[in-house]
Amino acid sequence: MLEERLEGEGHPARSLAASWGSHLAHDRRRSAHTVRAYVATAHRLIAFLGKHRGEEIGRFALLNLHASDLRAFLADRRGQGLGASSAAREMSAVRAFLTYAAEAQGTTPQLPRTRAPKRPRTLPRPASPDDAIALAEEAAAAAPNDWIGARDLAILLLLYGAGLRVAEAMSLTARVLPLGQAMRVTGKREKTRIVPLVPAVKEAITAYVALCPYPLAGDTPLFVGAKGGPLNPDLVRRAVRSARERLGLPDSLTPHALRHSFATHLLARGADLRSLQELLGHASLSSTQIYTDVDAARLLDVYRHAHPRA
């Protein structure tokens, strides 16, 4: 078990971290990756506080922490090489764990006031439409056989043409067949949304289904691996990396960058933020608003290269 690996047996707060992980997975519907990361943070906090305060940290000790305790924990993590963005996520997990610890004891959470590191604001780097299509076609051309090439082309066009995350594409089942004008996608926290299918994407998926040597029906994954099982998303990333290198495209052109490109190009063509939020499956509009900065950056770049007095 993860918690046993992170902490010694019998630690007084270990069971609390474990029950928090179960709460995140079943009640909050967080992804397995998020649960693992958050529970690991809880154990790191417990272990650090035990050394920092020279005492075992039990359930009630977690309710009486000071801002200096959290600042010391953060300083320790930064000293281990944790970057600003990762440190901010770590503190977010700490606050969530301490809130759960208080509520588990039937008390109102009173968290120490401490400021997390400011996250550096970075803008996604979208690909041009030509580069996005060239990447998908190059990855398909380099596949070991026709059906795998058709599969890779369909996946990458789906990421760019419908704005899906890689994990969302991998979670699609054969129940989406036969394809219509739109597709139901399950995203983060089990939220579903409807995404339209442009003709090029629909044609690519249809071609892949026709060539696939394995039966695709019911709850079978839509995109399968060479032996017919679920496709490992790392294979998609590897195909993109190889195609990108052969084409001389920037390292920033990742599978997820295709989703960024989808959003940026829609916004540039007049899509409103609310519609874009729905298409991307963002929980809040603030997550979508970053694309207004992306588009502004693109326009400034065009201006600098084209205007005679720029």
Q: How do you describe this structure in short?
A:
The protein is built from 13 helices and two strands.
Description:
Helices cover 59% and strands 3% of the residues. The protein is mainly α. The protein has two domains: 2-104; 129-255, Orthogonal Bundle (hpI Integrase, Chain A), CATH 1.10.443.10. It has a two-stranded antiparallel ribbon. Strand 1 (182-186) and strand 2 (192-196) form a beta hairpin.
Give the key terms:
two-stranded antiparallel ribbon; hpI Integrase, Chain A; mainly alpha; disordered N terminus; 310 residues; 2 domains
Strand order of the largest sheet: 1-2
- Total strands: 2
- Determine the strand fraction and express it as a percent band: under 5%
Distance between the termini: 59 Å
Helix and strand content put the structural class at mainly alpha
Break the fold down into its secondary structure elements and pairings:
Layout: H1 2-6, H2 14-27, H3 32-53, H4 67-79, H5 84-104, H6 129-141, H7 146-162, H8 166-171, E1 182-186, E2 192-196, H9 199-211, H10 233-247, H11 255-268, H12 273-280, H13 285-306
Antiparallel strand pairs: 1-2
Helix pairs in contact: 2-3, 3-5, 4-5, 6-7, 6-10, 7-9, 7-11, 11-13, 12-13
